[in-house]
Amino acid sequence: MATADPASARAPAAAYDNASPALRRELVTPEGVDLEVRLADASERAGAFLIDLVIMGVAMIALTILVGVAAAATHNKTGGSIMIVALLLIWFLLRNFYFVAFELTPRGATPGKRLLGLRVASRNGGRLTADAIFARNAMRELEVYLPATFLFARASGVDAWIILLGIAWCAVFVFMPLFNRDKLRAGDIVAGTWVLKAPRRKLAPDMAVKAHAAAKGVAFTQRELDTYGVKELQVLEEVLRRYEPRTLKAVAERIRTKIGRPADPQLSDGAFLDAYYVALRGRLEHRLLFGRRRRDKFDAP
To answer: What is the separation of C-alpha 75 from the centre of its chain, rounded to a whole number of angstroms?
Structure first.
């Protein structure tokens, strides 16, 4: 019976994260779990920061309007002074606690970072602590706000030279991410943090459901199914998810040789592997119901 390859239903290997190797890092957590993480590049971090500045600006404008309306409604001579004090207080809170408040959440990200799929994480793989978040954001004073103050300041003579030296000194902190391999801000270096790419992941579809059509009409004996265990099933599932023709052919030939099953010219490599995956998974799940779990092909059947 001819069975078509369901390759069009698979996500191609190119759909996997193809970030530059220069941005990939190996991270071992305190629990001993080996992870591969992907650093955010400078443009992503700058974009997230600009989005956050826009949000802060919109919030500042909205609160200014509310405070102005409230001050006008009081008909008090001191309404103008109250409005100025209120605006300074609002700006102080936004400037100092906007980033801290959002990064203290379990997501570890401001709205700008969330929109671009970024998050703050500890470089040692441990829990992101409040001390680290406060430290990294306190350094923003040297990296952003103080340089902005110098840039918009006007002076002449000696004061102008002082401002120029201040700008040069702050430039060291501003451009620090461009001169280290991990794209770390001064705040990240002090706090022991970095910013990672953490896009939302969709759950992959159940391979047994996707491969069910190919499994119809293809039967395997108990001996053929008892050749492999859970580990090999997981490897086979990864092969089917990637669905690369050369890999499918190599794996199909190896399995046929191992189980002693001749190739069927009417059955493609992909369809054969789909059918074997469904049958092997069913066999292992059935055995598990009776408390028998076969870890891999070396485990006793």
So the answer is: 52
